[in-house]
Write a structure and sequence with these properties.
Radius of gyration: 23 Å
Strand order of the largest sheet: 8-7-6-3-2-1-13-12-11-10-9
Oligomer: single chain
Organism: Saprospira grandis DSM 2844
Protein name: Lipoprotein
Mean pLDDT: 79
Order of helices and strands: HHEEEEEEEEEEEEE
Number of strands: 13
Number of helices: 2
Structural class: mainly beta
Strand content: over 45%
Low-confidence stretches: 16-32
């Protein structure tokens, strides 16, 4: 008798889990095709596939990167607590020339396996009403996550005789723990130029040619 009752409870519990899973995995139907705002797209407009960009360094050295692709992805996801959040993502993928494998930096600040290609910028937009947006900027050993599109400075900055406006300076967190002065401490980004400069902890600056 006890065994039958226990089995019955197991069946009810299993049915309960099935119901929870069903509603958790229910796909969000989009009322209209998701899209990025004009301000969001401006952060990505500087690049086209196969572009090659040069950065002049402090002692005549040159860094080069190639745009291998600009992609838009939709993560269907669902509203359930055990599912990925539905989102729209647009990203710019680069390759350093000559080919150099840089360690990818996670959001926790840990460096993981080396990768030949790198996502220079990814912009993610939640498809849920209560969801948020965020950007991830990465370059070489540098990576930073910011909420939505960062506010741009309206003044003009001059680096190596070149002027840039409508820009943002993004700095590495936890810099006091960095002992290697050759690591990148900040990147400079503008609507018109995209990544136009970066600086290491020595104060050396590379500027877009």
């Amino acid at each position: 008798m006890y065994s039958d009752k226990f089995k019955g409870q197991q069946i009810l519990f299993s049915l309960f889990l099935v119901v929870i899973l069903f509603f958790s995995c229910e796909t969000i139907e989009e009322a209209e095709k998701p899209s990025f705002s004009e301000n969001e797209l401006k952060m990505l407009e500087a690049y086209l596939k196969d572009d090659t960009i040069y950065f002049d360094g402090p002692v005549g050295d040159v860094d080069t990167m190639s745009i291998t692709g600009v992609y838009t992805e939709i993560e269907k996801g669902s509203a359930g607590f055990i599912s990925k959040e539905p989102s729209l993502r647009r990203k710019i993928v680069i390759k350093h020339l000559p080919v150099d494998n840089w360690k990818r930096v996670t959001y926790s600040g840990k460096e993981v396996m080396k990768e030949e290609q790198q996502i220079l910028l990814s912009l993610t937009k939640s498809l849920l009403a209560e969801g948020g947006n965020y950007c991830v900027f990465s370059f070489k050993d540098f990576s930073v996550l910011v909420d939505s599109v960062p506010l741009l400075k309206k003044d003009t900055i001059t680096l190596k005789g070149k002027s840039f406006s409508n820009y943002v300076i993004l700095k590495r967190g936890g810099h006091k723990m960095i002992k290697d002065s050759s690591k990148t401490q900040a990147i400079y980004w503008s609507e018109r130029e995209g990544l136009f400069a970066y600086e290491n902890f020595k104060g050396d600056v590379w500027v877009k040619r």
